[in-house]
Amino acid sequence: MTEKTTGASYAAAGVDIEAGDRAVELMKEWVKKTQRPEVLGGLGGFAGLFDASALKRYERPLLASATDGVGTKVDIARQLGVYDTIGHDLVAMVMDDIVVCGAEPLFMTDYICVGKVHPERVAAIVKGIAEGCVLAGCALVGGETAEHPGLLGPDDFDVAGAGTGVVEYDRLLGADRIRTGDAVIAMASSGLHSNGYSLVRHVLFDRAGMSLDAHVEELGRTLGEELLEPTKIYSLDCMALTRTAEVHAYSHITGGGLAANLARVIPDHLHATVDRATWTPGAIFDLVGKAGQVEQLELEKTLNMGVGMMAVVPQESVDVALTALADRGVDAWVAGEILDRGDRTEGATLTGSYAS
C-alpha cells in the first residue's frame, strides 16, 4: 500500500491568505473615511481609480508625486505594540513633500510588508494611514499588504507609501519665486517626526541604556510616548496659507536637517540665514545630544531641531502669514531671511545660539 504524502502549500510556507482577507475587511471602514468625490470604486480592486476630469478646472495642471517610508521608527511601534500612529508619520512624509511645490494632495497608496499577517495589527496601521489622509485632505485609494515569512520575523513590519497631488503651472512654488529680503517663517515640529531614528536609537538605547517605558522628567512622559509622537501633517495648513498670503516657497524639514532642506529651494545666487535664537528646540533634542555626546552640527544635520516646515514669504506678507497660521493652531515665527549669496558656498546656514 502506497503511503499518502502531504504536498507543499502556501500556508505551509507561512503565508496566510485568510488572515490577509480578514485584514482587508477590518480596514475597509477606515479607508472609507478618506474618500473624496473623485474616487471611484471601493477597496479590493486591482487599481485605485481617481476621476481626472476633476482637473479640467486647471488650465495647465502639473501632477506632483512623492514616495517615502518612516524608517526605523517602525521598530519603536513594534516594541511598544502601538500600531495606529505610524500611519500619520507615513502620510506626513509623503504628502508634506508634495505640498511644498504648492500642490493640493489628491490621493495616496500604501505598502505594508509583514513577517506574519496579524489582521488587527494591519488594520490598526491602515487606520493610522487613513486618519493621516483625512488630516492631509487626500484619499487613500488602495494599497498592498505583503506577507514575507522567512525574510521578516513574525512581528516585524515596514510601511511605505506613494502620493499624488496637483498644482496649476503658474502657481508652482519654488526657487524661481524667492527674492532678496524675503522672510523665512518656521513652523514648529511635533518632535522628532520620522527622521534620524537610527541615531536616536543608537544613542538612547545602545549607549545610554534607556528603556521605552522609562518616565523622563524633561519630557513629561515616557520615552516611548515621546518617540512615537506622530509627525505633524502640514498639508492643509500650507494650502490655507498659500490661499491667504503670498508664499514663494516651502521646505519640508526631513532627513538632512534644517539647513540642507531649506537650501534645496534657495536659488544659486541667494542665501538663507536662520537665527537659532528665535526658538528653543524641544527637550528630546537636548536629551539625544547629551546622552550620546552628539555634536551640535551632527544633531542639526540629522534631526529637525524643532522645525518641521518652513515658508519663504515676502516681507509684506509676514503679518498675514503668521496670523493665518496662528488661526489654524500652528506655532510659527520669523526665523530668518534671504540675502544675496556673496562669497558664501552654502545655500542656507544657521547662526547664533538657541534660545534657552
From TrEMBL:
Keywords: ATP-binding, Cytoplasm, Ligase, Nucleotide-binding, Purine biosynthesis
Ranges where the PurM-like N-terminal domain occurs: 59-167
PANTHER family: TRIFUNCTIONAL PURINE BIOSYNTHETIC PROTEIN ADENOSINE-3 (PTHR10520:SF12), TRIFUNCTIONAL PURINE BIOSYNTHETIC PROTEIN ADENOSINE-3-RELATED (PTHR10520)
EC identifiers of the protein: 6.3.3.1
Metabolic or biological pathway, per its Swiss-Prot or TrEMBL entry: Purine metabolism; IMP biosynthesis via de novo pathway; 5-amino-1-(5-phospho-D-ribosyl)imidazole from N(2)-formyl-N(1)-(5-phospho-D-ribosyl)glycinamide: step 2/2
Gene3D superfamilies named in the record: PurM-like C-terminal domain (3.90.650.10), PurM-like, N-terminal domain (3.30.1330.10)
Catalysed reaction, written as an equation: 2-formamido-N(1)-(5-O-phospho-beta-D-ribosyl)acetamidine + ATP = 5-amino-1-(5-phospho-beta-D-ribosyl)imidazole + ADP + phosphate + H(+)
GO molecular function: phosphoribosylformylglycinamidine cyclo-ligase activity
Record carries keyword Magnesium: no
This protein's name: Phosphoribosylformylglycinamidine cyclo-ligase
Compartments reported by the entry: Cytoplasm
Highest taxon of the lineage: Bacteria
Chain ranges of the PurM-like C-terminal domain: 180-343
Major localisation: cytoplasm
Family: Belongs to the AIR synthase family.
Entry-linked Pfam families: AIRS, AIRS_C
Organism the protein comes from: Streptomyces yangpuensis
